[in-house]
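Lecture notes, unit on binding sites. The following record was shown on slide 14. It pairs a sequence with zinc ion.
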Amino acid sequence: MASQCIGNGMRRDERLRYVISDILFREWDPVGVNDIERVSDEYDSYPPGLTRVACDGGPTGRNMSDDYLKIIPTSAECVPPKRTHRSALVLLRTFFPEGEDFQVEIYDEIEFIDQGENIEAVICPACKQRLEMEHFTEGDPIVAWWYELSEAMDGTAVTAITTRMPCCGRVVRMMDLEFDWPAGFARFELNVMNPNVAENLTESQLRELEQILGCRLRQVRAHY
Ligand SMILES: [Zn+2]
């Protein structure tokens, strides 16, 4: 969807072109000329095609990086009545006029509503220790434990998953884990892709949505 790049303005496009040209010259240098500074524009003709690929999301058709705001009930089982969904979407659109895609998702079973790359730590429900994830440290035991737990979610309902905590060794329910940044468990989700606003909804905006949907809500900010 090239329009997403255009929608974000030409500046991003130009910046991306410059960065790609610079990486081509200094790092990749497929023609082997980067020791000659006066030909530093050697790769300037390459980037338009590459930025287009980046904007189109490459062969998978996905954007390089997307930001989502997900709004879910605080009670995992709650699915607000269908008649309320449309009004909730309309209101959400007014909160994020630059948002790209607004969706209501309803799941047959309770799902883990994840924060993607925003995950920094898990808080143990038994001993309250904060388990920091060192994503860039090879063999980090907390990251390894988390990956194993994430894999357990493939084909098993999250409500049935338990895990032995790496901090205190106690066995807890996956559903009882807390996360930083926040994540949650839900059967209902309202979301907006690339809201183009760094902040989440204000408390009063959230209350307005709660009044429409008839349940308490919380927010999960995800990045992929
Ligand atoms: Zn613990």
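Take-home: Confidence is low (pLDDT under 50) at residues 1-10.
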